[in-house]
Write a structure and sequence with these properties.
35 helices; alpha/beta; binds zinc ion; binds adenosine-5'-diphosphate; six-stranded parallel sheet
Length: 740
């Protein structure tokens, strides 16, 4: 297989022009029949690493995946790209399962997803035997491979059986995929799966498109308002993580009252409610999911634009994974952490409750580690250096310098040279034989008479008392910075013992200077405005139109919008505005199947848009080639397209009368357009149509007498509200109150 034809297959089936870092090497190794381990962060593009080889090889590839939702997602997306795929799991009827098995044997399926426990059911083993004889097994792909390791955060005993694959099919290559970073887990995976000299690819865990920031909490009310303000500045889907079910419920409710389409998710809801809420969020019927960390694992939504931790996460790894659910599609996204000292106390309290279920004794080792992990979260949040560097260092990556995409880098603090103090600190660590934590080192430096200091005779050391000129806080700040900048290491056993490393010695020998950012003053956090590239208005309007078409098409097929096209593809479409199939095919994310299925619909919208906003430089060569017949807008689209026209103008700031005048319509028709869009689930801010006060009154009426009869509502409101006003508010109310 030449590298060129790999690239062609990538374009034909997935619509992408080039591979991301690591993908090609992984694919080539797997195609060459080698066992492979792919370690990439969320959004790194793991799926293609086994999907593309599956297409190129004879036989079927068996994909082991732990979550049913995940299987469904991937199978839907594969089918959209014209690839034969199916899944077999416990949700299927016997008849359906038989049909699918037959399809596999008929050779029309390239990828079959199964749950691990099913793989080794006697019946399935027999089935695989037949598959292998008849059409061959091309490979085994083990998704979320870290589940095989007890050292991982998500161990699943069923995964342990996967070792049998190697025994049953010694010659079929296995590829494991995971986003879990630690060394120990990696080794465990390759060993547990019986991999033979695997090719291992570890991608960088730097998620360059994620913006990291921390906002201090300032009392319950002000914090909530900051949260609200933060969400209002965001576009697109988001997740707000809270610590407890109670808080999830409260915050979701308040956000709704404040006009944000938010729904809750936590383990206290019924399975049905959880699934419904999840689906509404995935399909963009609501914007914000307020959730405990029970939510998110296995959610593949690629266009999550923001993840806010309204309460402190419990450890950095968790924070990295949870915040990492933003921006899988590579588009700019926001990760915000609210730092509240009250929350800190709550978590400490919860940790103190950890007891052995049998003996009821406190689990001291676990508690100690939990406290240290929490301390690391606080250190991250209080850190004044690049947040990305702090996170990546946690995963063993040395990221240098200014990322220009975190709050600390965008508003850098003035730097001071603290090399001399660092030398004092590090030599004190050396003199005390690398056996103590930061607190003790600082005590020694500041000449404390504490018993622990005297007992170890550390008052006899040459470094005793040489740091009296600096405050406790300053020393703490320094020790945190030394850790964050990699000049010191600490043990992770809960004791946080400081250890010297190569860089420490370089500082002590005077080969390196240590710069320390000066702590910001305690003025309230100002929200940093990022520079965003403003697209021209017409591009933005077109984007909204294309997005609405995407939503309509998605609803028609009962799939999430991103399955049709990703936001990245939609953005490119709005910018390049292709009007021929040939140009449309060039968009990233448009493969052969999607071109066939969707190009005409989207081109129709673009052409229609050009009537109102002629393309800036009419690329005559392109446009003149368009024959009207080559485009077949469907009737249903032209019906909704007039609504979209109205919406674009409304969102452009025009009021009802202006829109009606411009478009030669009656105002009532304009109201109807907007109402219909609202009813179909489109999120429109109606504050300019009905004042928030009036919305509230109508809302209350709806809560009291329901939305069935407009006439009753009109009467109930003593005829002080127009039918139009009632109708738009009712549309929103219905969307919030009715299941899908
Ligand atoms: P992971 O499983 O590693 O979290 P996915 O396989 O879901 O990531 O890929 C994340 C996103 O990146 C998806 O939207 C996918 O279509 C897209 N993607 C993957 N490979 C490429 C590529 N080579 N070029 C552009 N986009 C890609
Ligand atoms: Zn940074």
């Amino acid at each position: 297989m030449t590298s060129d034809s790999l690239q062609q297959t990538l374009k034909q089936y997935f619509g992408y022009d080039s591979f991301r870092a690591g993908q090609r090497e992984i694919i080539e190794a797997h195609l060459a029949g080698r066992d492979t381990l792919a370690i990439m962060p969320t959004g790194g593009g793991k799926s293609i690493c086994f999907q593309l080889p599956a297409l190129l090889k004879d036989g079927v590839t068996i994909v082991v995946s732990p979550l049913i939702a995940l299987m469904q997602d991937q199978v839907t997306a594969l089918k959209e790209n014209g690839i034969g795929a199916t899944f077999l799991n416990s949700t299927l009827s016997v008849r359906e399962a038989n049909l699918r098995s037959q399809a596999v044997l008929d050779g029309v399926i390239k990828l079959t997803y199964v749950a691990p426990e099913r793989l080794f059911a006697q019946q399935f083993i027999e089935f695989l035997k037949i598959v292998n004889q008849k059409i061959g097994i091309a490979g085994f792909a083990i998704d979320e491979a870290h589940c095989v390791s007890e050292w991982g955060h998500d161990f699943r005993p069923e995964y342990r059986q996967l070792r049998q694959i190697r025994q049953l099919y010694p010659d079929v290559p296995v590829i494991g995929l995971t986003a879990t970073a630690t060394e120990r887990v990696r080794e465990d995976i390759s060993q547990q799966l019986g991999m033979y000299q695997p090719y291992i690819h570890v991608a960088s865990f730097n998620r360059t498109n994620l913006y990291y920031e921390v906002i201090p909490k300032q009392g319950t009310e002000q914090s909530y308002l900051n949260l609200l303000q933060q969400i209002k500045r965001m576009q697109g889907s988001g997740i707000v993580y809270c610590l407890s079910r109670k808080r999830v419920t409260e915050i979701a409710e308040r956000l709704r009252e404040d006009g944000i389409a938010a729904i809750p998710y936590h383990a206290g809801l019924s399975a049905k409610e959880r699934e419904e809420n999840q689906t509404r969020w995935i399909r963009d019927d609501v914007q914000v999911m307020v959730a405990t960390i029970a939510f998110g694992m296995g959610i593949n939504k690629p266009d999550v634009r923001f993840v806010i931790h309204y309460d402190l996460p419990r450890n950095i790894e968790g924070y990295y994974q949870e915040s990492g659910r933003a921006g899988r599609d590579g588009e700019d996204s926001h990760c915000t952490l609210f730092l509240g000292y009250q929350d800190l106390e709550t978590i400490k309290y919860l940790i103190a409750q950890k007891v052995d279920p049998h003996s009821n004794e406190p689990l001291e080792a676990e508690q100690r580690i939990a406290y240290q992990q929490l301390r690391q979260v606080v250190d991250y949040a209080e850190g004044v250096t690049c947040r990305r560097a702090i996170l990546l260092r946690y995963f063993g990556e040395n990221f240098h310098g200014n990322c220009r995409n975190c709050d600390n880098c965008l508003t850098p603090k003035p730097m001071e040279d603290w090399t001399v103090e660092s030398q004092k600190f590090l030599s004190c660590v050396a003199r005390t034989k690398e056996r103590f934590g930061a607190g003790h080192i600082i005590d020694v430096l500041r000449g404390s008479r504490k018993e622990k200091v005297l007992q170890h005779q550390h008052d006899q050391l040459s470094t005793y008392g040489i740091g009296k000129d600096r405050s406790l806080d300053e020393w703490r700040q320094l020790s945190r910075s030394l850790l964050h900048q990699g000049y010191l290491t600490q043990t992770t056993d809960g004791y946080a013992i400081l250890k010297l490393n190569d860089r420490s010695w370089e500082v002590m020998r005077g080969q390196r200077n240590v710069l320390l950012p000066i702590e910001r003053d305690t003025e309230p956090a100002t929200v940093v405005e990022r520079e965003t590239s403003e697209s021209p208005v017409d591009v933005e309007i077109l984007f909204k139109r294309l997005r609405l078409l995407r939503k309509n098409l998605a609803d028609g097929q009962e799939v999430p919008p991103y399955v049709i096209f990703s936001n990245a593809t939609l953005n490119q479409m709005a910018e390049q505005q292709p009007t021929t199939r040939k140009d449309f095919a060039k968009l990233s994310g448009v493969g052969a199947k999607k071109l066939e299925q969707y190009a005409d619909d989207f081109i129709a919208i673009i052409l229609e848009h050009h009537l109102q906003y002629p393309p800036a430089e009419p690329t005559a060569s392109v446009n003149s080639r368009v024959k009207p017949e080559s485009v077949t807008p469907k009737a249903k689209i032209s019906k909704v397209s007039t609504q979209r026209e109205t919406l674009a103008m409304y969102e452009n700031g025009l009021d009802i009368d202006e829109i009606a005048r411009d478009r030669g319509l009656k105002p009532a028709t304009v109201w109807t357009h907007l109402t219909q869009l609202l009813e179909s689930g489109y999120a429109i801010n109606i504050d300019r149509l009905v004042s928030p006060e009036r919305q509230n009154v109508i809302y209350e009426a709806l809560e009291v007498i329901g939305g069935d009869s407009l006439r009753n509502l009109f009467d109930h409101l003593r005829e002080e509200y127009t039918y139009d006003e009632i109708k738009v508010v009712r549309a929103i109310w219905q969307n919030e109150n009715e299941p899908l």
